Amino acid sequence: MLMFRKRSPEFKFPLVWLAFILVRRHPYPMNLILSTHNVTLTKAIEDHIVSRISKLEHLASFAINARVTLEHDRTKAAERQFSCSIRLSLPGPDLFAADVESDLYAAMDLVAKKIEQQLRKRQNKRKARKHKVAARTKRSRQESEA
Fold first, then answer.
1. Which segments of the chain have a pLDDT < 70?
2. What is the pTM of this model?
3. In angstroms, rounded to a whole number, what is the distance separating the alpha carbons of residues 53 and 102?
4. Taking a C-beta distance cutoff of 8 angstroms, is the pair 39, 64 a contact?
């Protein structure tokens, strides 16, 4: 289920809120806040962002907000005109990634990849911390038996 809320026309920059519902792990939906600067928000861009964020959901089921900012700066060189940034609000420190490319879709893809890498690293650290204690107790138990 997606919930759309857009800013009223008197605001300069469009803003879209989308809510994703997770059935298993998290009782509250994750909000997607999409803001643009000098970029016309089309249905294709919106769908692309939604698909990228929904792929991150299985890694960050506990995420509260995903704030995506799309910008176009015509004053920069052609290979650095489009920028995309994502801030993922989680319990604990937030995750942030940004990228600048010549193509908006390429920038969105690379930023989603960076956030996914950060989420995997965070998840692996948590798993390793759990296993470290279990391995220590097993080792001490084996040493006491020998």
1. 1-28
2. 0.71
3. 21
4. no
